[in-house]
């Protein structure tokens, strides 16, 4: 660490708690990584919680002359969110959402994930305008700072044009809130020179008609190259200029501390179609005709190599498999979406679009689908093209995505010229796709940056791209991904000397010391785009295809506590690289030591990361591999053989816990438990909502009483009671419910000894897990008459374990296994009459239920039991089997947002996993019930 950084850090310590000041090499590498193809190692990472802390960082940075980069989600693609100085993370503590004017406006803090903003607006039939493909991960601060747009918003609905008000902090720590008249008035006095400087720059542009015309023309296209100097001529008031200049400024002019958007309609009726053309030119001509017709909301162009890249994806039309390199080398597909305020309006739009398409002779047409699942499949494949390309690259190469815009009337010519240019430089693997209505194209390729020759090849290619797009076509070198480092050397080429000098003077006006995100947008280094290029060395076959996009991070329960899946991979890559080259033994030893807790001990291994990863990487699989087999396999096998006694001992322990709470009080017992755990970590912590012991399982039902059904009671539901006080079991409520629907549930023989094997598998005791699986298989086969009757699995994690084992050929295929949620939805509730008994209900979809594809069914069932249902965006509660007892900090970290997400008056929750219910109840302050008990309260025979 440099002396000035060390002095800066010491001065900052009184203002930011020590655990949020990160300087160790493991976490600075992990936290300093973003989705771009640049790698810089910050000297200090600050996890700021509020504006006061950011203000201190900026003031001290000015005093000690250290550079500062602010970042939210790290999904930026062009190098604008990495630094070798001070990185300030804006995530936790910055997630405030306030819906205004019945949804017409929304006020957001910069740490809000874009999708969460849309979730808050959904009931109003509105959404925010920007819609980047990364919206489920990207945060509002980064979206605004990059002027992110996306597939549907075009230019009219981007952040610039939907901005209502801005809360911005300048480099000197001054805060301006344009929605607050007093703040504006004070700013006009304190920063009169700055505002006069903006007026002077505006006058310079207006005094030059050719320059003014150029600025207006450039912003008819999507354009994020350089600063948004259209703000200087779009507005008269310099405060308005300042606010709009911040959109797309990439943290180089100030910090966006809050933003208020005008929202846009989110029409409830939508339809999507895939249309194939044998010739790229015909597809582009159809795009122009569709844009003129006006019934479409989005049109995505996918070139022939891109079609080939997604042919293996499920749910796509069969005709795409007819595209081959030899037969249709110039094929292209259009993914079209249209929307309507009503079903009739939607049908009219579909008919109008089909008429236009018919005039351009498509080779095939899927027809418009209004099925949400079909449409989601189409768009998920499109959104995943960038990471999917990265997954097919040779190991060791880097995935680069570039983002340009051609005048839409010259789109076909632009695509062909760009394809030829890629081939000329040897990037034959490249894919081209993008937002065709705006002439906006992305192209993805995989250069190797491990030699000077490869770097120079990339340099020559970028020079030619600049000439082609900016000079020959008058387009944008950066349409929506931001200038960053990669295009900073080309801003002058695209804009010309006069406009570029305006941008240089603008940067000087706001940041004369050059401390705010230097070398981004404006750089004196003409080679900056060729420096600090990221290499992705081999680490493990499980994760080598990761391109560090970060899409996995929002669903990771250890996000913010230790590492995310992306960060685990980044750090493991570095460890493996150091092991191979032997260049720094001391650093390697330190990283390996830290990886134990950061990378392995605190990973829930639930695999939710794979559900968000476009190429399905399950980092939990890597973690399980690195943890290795259990060190005491004999003990695991002994426990498996005596499982009945183990569960009995657990019930006894729960009885002691109940007794102790009655004598000493629940809070005191919990405090003592936590104190002992801190001293002796092997002693588990019982969360405050841990229930008492379960009672005896219900008796069998004669077969004549209904249709036979085998009920597999999981060990966790045999140990924990359904109600906090203990006694009753989940099976009590489930049997009552099932009988009402005409089923005759019965337990398999020796149920007390049965287990799905998940507890052993998660600990690396594979032999014990397999033995448990075999014992359960035999009992279920016997109870179900060799698979003739259905088997009901009452706990979602156990259901996932058994169903996946059967899919993998490890369990007899004759068994008809049903997870509880799906069986209740499909074969129980249709036979019942449900009367809602709850006013407000919170629903948690466990990881296992999501993986089983039953999440929507769980929510649908809950809606039949309550007046209003809330589904907080908690993808994984972090309890993860027994980790909630042994690593309670993981559960607490994952659920720290839960209570604020619950609506006022919500007094009850529901889930499909018993351990999830314990964690949720402990951290929300409200009881969480099983789905069976909730339905039982509401159900009567139909």
From TrEMBL:
<keyword id="KW-0809">Transit peptide</keyword>
<dbReference type="Pfam" id="PF13183">
    <property type="entry name" value="Fer4_8"/>
</dbReference>
<feature type="domain" description="FAD-binding PCMH-type">
    <location>
        <begin position="38"/>
        <end position="266"/>
    </location>
</feature>
<dbReference type="InterPro" id="IPR036318">
    <property type="entry name" value="FAD-bd_PCMH-like_sf"/>
</dbReference>
<keyword id="KW-0274">FAD</keyword>
<keyword id="KW-0560">Oxidoreductase</keyword>
<dbReference type="InterPro" id="IPR016167">
    <property type="entry name" value="FAD-bd_PCMH_sub1"/>
</dbReference>
<keyword id="KW-0411">Iron-sulfur</keyword>
<dbReference type="InterPro" id="IPR017900">
    <property type="entry name" value="4Fe4S_Fe_S_CS"/>
</dbReference>
<dbReference type="InterPro" id="IPR009051">
    <property type="entry name" value="Helical_ferredxn"/>
</dbReference>
<dbReference type="InterPro" id="IPR006094">
    <property type="entry name" value="Oxid_FAD_bind_N"/>
</dbReference>
<dbReference type="Pfam" id="PF01565">
    <property type="entry name" value="FAD_binding_4"/>
</dbReference>
<feature type="domain" description="4Fe-4S ferredoxin-type">
    <location>
        <begin position="535"/>
        <end position="566"/>
    </location>
</feature>
<keyword id="KW-0285">Flavoprotein</keyword>
<dbReference type="InterPro" id="IPR016171">
    <property type="entry name" value="Vanillyl_alc_oxidase_C-sub2"/>
</dbReference>
<comment type="similarity">
    <text>Belongs to the FAD-binding oxidoreductase/transferase type 4 family.</text>
</comment>
<dbReference type="InterPro" id="IPR016166">
    <property type="entry name" value="FAD-bd_PCMH"/>
</dbReference>
<dbReference type="InterPro" id="IPR004113">
    <property type="entry name" value="FAD-bd_oxidored_4_C"/>
</dbReference>
<dbReference type="InterPro" id="IPR016169">
    <property type="entry name" value="FAD-bd_PCMH_sub2"/>
</dbReference>
<dbReference type="InterPro" id="IPR017896">
    <property type="entry name" value="4Fe4S_Fe-S-bd"/>
</dbReference>
<keyword id="KW-0408">Iron</keyword>
<dbReference type="InterPro" id="IPR016164">
    <property type="entry name" value="FAD-linked_Oxase-like_C"/>
</dbReference>
<protein>
    <recommendedName>
        <fullName>D-lactate dehydrogenase (cytochrome)</fullName>
        <ecNumber>1.1.2.4</ecNumber>
    </recommendedName>
</protein>
<keyword id="KW-0479">Metal-binding</keyword>
<dbReference type="Pfam" id="PF02913">
    <property type="entry name" value="FAD-oxidase_C"/>
</dbReference>
